[in-house]
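User: Predict the structure for this protein chain, please.
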Amino acid sequence: MNQRTAVIIDYDAGNLKSVQRACAEVGLSASISADPEVVRRAERVIFPGVGAAGSAMRSMTRAGMGEALKEVIRSGVPVLGICLGLQISLDYSEEDDQATLGLLPGRVVRFRFDKPELKIPHMGWNEVRVTKPHPILEGIEPGDEFYFVHGYYPEPEQTGQVYALTEYESDFASAVGQDNYFATQFHPEKSGRVGLRLLSAFSEWNGRC
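Assistant: Here is the predicted structure, written as structure tokens:
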């Protein structure tokens, strides 16, 4: 059997080694690369990240990585976005008033509420409720919790692109996708057993829903 492989995009947005280690746990050999040509040749691509939308987009643009990622998606290669990777996949982010990649129609907005018990950023474990089946979410059960760290959240234009919701004062989209692109607001690489289950499903996914 051929070794399953992936390329993790390096655009100076951190958290890459923990993603790489989690991939190794499920038998996915993942290299880290800041070279758009390496990304273009990948069998699978993981697009993670922590940080701010403005600096992330500057790094993506400077390296030519945004265009490479768009080409990969158009070619049908399975792609997994994580946290900031998801957020800069939409059209616009309120963070830094930033135009983003436009891989999916929609915007990213800041949590706004006046409840002292609800902190911003939203940090810690929270339930992810699957609302629409997807191969990557197969095996995720009611009550399964994943790890989040974010002060902004995605608002996709098309409800059909939302695959899971999470409640933090109100429901927000925590997993979205279209065709061969799927993305999570939570961090599967920091989510223990259930996170590894999701990464294992991604490693087997052929890019079709």
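The two ends are 24 Å apart (CA to CA).
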